[in-house]
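Reading a protein record of the kind used here takes only a little practice. Each token is a code from a learned vocabulary of local backbone shapes. With that in mind, consider the following protein and its fold in token form:
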Amino acid sequence: MEEEKAVRIKDFIDLAKEGKKVEVEIELRTQNIQQKIHPGDTEDKKGEVDAYLLIGDYSFKVEGKEQGEDSKVSKIYVWGFAEESIGTRRIHRNIANDRLEMDYQRLRAAGVEFEPKYFSKCLL
């Protein structure tokens, strides 16, 4: 594993399981995007809709390894549309937090040190 570039959360979990000390800082963000859609797929035929992504940015520190671009991993936890109801956005936030928690459990089980963060109301 050590010769290969770590590009996924799982790669860093594997390093921790091999006995390396691994720490991670997690930042959460919302990214607004324009989702292109096929013109025949919507009634108003505008071709684009406003959408959003809930993303986790992970910055890993591995014992004995210089920190660089290969120590950063971003993961999309959910995407949705700007026109959704508040209830749907809450459901999406809860899904994203549940998926985050699954990754946190994997990190904890491998002994990776981190401070957990969750998507909050202010991100929606």
Q: What stands out?
A: Residues 23 and 62 are 7 Å apart (CA to CA). The first strand starts at residue 22 and ends at 36. The radius of gyration is 18 Å.
